[in-house]
Amino acid sequence: MRGADVLARALAAAGTRHVFALSGNHVMPVFDAALDARLSLIHVRHEAAAVHMADAWGRLTGQVGVALVTGGPGHANAVSALYTALAGESPLLLISGHAPLNELGKGAFQEMAQADVAAPLAKASWTAQSAEGLGADIVRAFRTAASGRPGPVHLSIPNDVLDARVDAPIPSRESFVKESHAIDKPMAAVFLQALGAAARPLVIAGPALSNARGRAALRGLEEASGIPALVMESPRGVSDPSLGRLAGVLAKADAVLLLGKRRDFTLKFGRAFAEGCKVLDINGDVDAMASAERLAALADKTGSGSWLEEVHGALRFRPEAWKTLESAGSALHAVEVCGAAQKLLDSPDAVLICDGGEFGQWAQACLSAPHRVINGPAGSIGAALPFAAAAKLAFPRSTVLAALGDGTFGFHMSEIETAVRCKLPYIALVGNDACWNAEYQIQLRAYGKDRAHGLDLLPVKYGAVAAAMGASGADVSSLSDLEKSLEKAKSSGLPAVVNVAIERAAAPTY
């Protein structure tokens, strides 16, 4: 066997179904080995897209997503996407090809200190040293990515390691089982006692519990204890548009348990809580999911029903005026667009993808689905199309709707071709205000209308662009045309882009 065969078979033994990849000189032995290992290669158009796809796979399924790219510039392109995955606490493995070990320091082709480049953006980052050790490398990578607080791991593999002939064992499936790192029972009891003694307690979870299983675990904890439990995953923090009047709730709480949620900028470094609020932390490299389940198993129903309902009401709050919002001209308001789109998501296992930007914030406020992936605490934009492709792989029979702005669409527009080629029929809903609107709104607030400049985009017909790549595409500006186009997109059996002209509205506030 070659090292590449050890790698491919180890990935298969770990349960990997899809490898999100972009080819290049250093990794072609892995493309060959994937055939015998029966690994599906989803071949993308940009290395960052491969990492974003692995990221979404990890968040939605809880399984380690795998991205494969070549060395040097391919690795550099991929690394930028690791930051989004790290902030989103997504379990993934980025495998990068690498210059040969026996040529390092001699000016090898695309030589780079790749592990050092990726290290600040990963839970662990290293370079494989032998073909014999590749199986152990993959086990270490998977266990590190999935255990404790999930996150990305990087492994560079020199191509002489991939080409080397070895007689090495393939790891067993059991060797990939993650470590739990849940809080122990005595500590769980201490936390529950402190919350039970409070009048207005809260449990706030971090991004690792933002998927369907995590939210179910929090509902279980809430039902067992009577204590409100919620997830914070937005870079908007206490102004997260999907959490209504969260700021008011945080200001009233007298005891808060942070369950894998850092006391970071999204909580104003703790200043979001009232003075005197008792803040408890379950943080570090802790398995938040297992900890939530342990807390639920030990809880007695001590919480106040009236406080629980008050919190739920605050989180559900949306202004009554939104129900009658209508466009003032030839472009639609984001609320109207979301009202039409919600009909597609009212189905079992539907998946909502929301990118950043102002239209993304309206979508997060107005749209709901059983499964959701947003850009996360990193505050990045551009991942929506790769996220949607991975979501369709994870839930092939479900409706997958990605809501993104026109600026965002430009980041990975070419991945529409990937979706067509790989037969991944998701729907991309593009809110097109011909502007980098989030930054435009900053200019309006900070400098005034007369100094708002440099952020206009062309009103490109992105539906026509998608159609040119073989997708279903529509460009609309009226509500009736939008509704018809969304239905057509759903029934087309193709990846679809519905590009709708919208007003330049600021993100929602309450």
Strand composition percent:
15-25%
| CATH level-1 class of the largest domain | Alpha Beta
Level of helix content? 40-55%
- The N- and C-terminal alpha carbons lie at a distance of 61 Å
CATH architecture of the largest domain: 3-Layer(aba) Sandwich
What does this structure look like?
With 510 residues, the protein is α/β, with parallel strands linked by helices. The protein folds into 3 domains: 3-176, Rossmann fold (3-Layer(aba) Sandwich), CATH 3.40.50.970; 185-316, Rossmann fold (3-Layer(aba) Sandwich), CATH 3.40.50; 320-501, Rossmann fold, CATH 3.40.50. Helices cover 40% and strands 16% of the residues. The chain is built from 20 helices and 16 strands. It has helices at 3-13, 28-37, 47-61, 73-87, 114-118, 134-146, 159-163, 185-196, 212-225, 246-252, 288-298, 305-316, 334-345, 357-366, 384-394, 406-409, 415-421, 437-447, 462-468, 479-491; strands spanning 18-21, 40-43, 65-69, 92-98, 124-127, 152-158, 201-205, 229-231, 255-259, 278-282, 351-354, 371-374, 400-405, 427-432, 472-476, 496-501. Strands 2-1-3-4-6-5 form a 6-stranded parallel sheet, sandwiched between helices. Helix 14 links the parallel strand 11 (351-354) and strand 12. It is globular, with a radius of gyration of 23 Å. The N and C termini lie far apart (61 Å).
